[in-house]
Amino acid sequence: MSQLPTPGVASPCINVCKMDDTGAFCVGCFRTIAEIALWSRAPDEQRLKILLAVERRRGEQDPAGCAAGGDSRGDCAR
User: Fold this and answer.
1) pLDDT per residue as tens digits for the range 47-65
2) Pick from 11, 18, 39, 71: most CB atoms within 10 A?
């Protein structure tokens, strides 16, 4: 019996699963539906590429981040 490999790259999911107003990506993890569906079977190299896209999207949506009072994901420290 074979086991699934242990994932080396952690998922960016923060359990805030809601698509943005355009349906382009999740406002919690900033992944697209296709990236979310692929994640569980993607090799680490592909996961790292997804994480790069996630960081780009996050920066585009909230360039100032929590420091400017942005809390679109509800994960800023209070």
Assistant:
1) 999 999 999 999 998 766 6
2) 39
Token representation of residue 6: 């242990």
Q: Which two tokens stand for residue 74?
A: 């509800």
From the list 26, 7, 11, the residue with the least C-alpha distance to 74 is 26
With contact defined as beta carbons under 8 Å apart, do 66 and 76 qualify?
yes
Q: Is 80 exceeded by the pLDDT of residue 6?
A: no
Burial of 25 (0-12, 13-18, 19+ CB in 10 A): buried
What global pTM score does this model have?
Answer: 0.72
As for how many domains the chain has, the answer is 1
Q: What's the whole-number mean pLDDT along residues 13-20?
A: 96
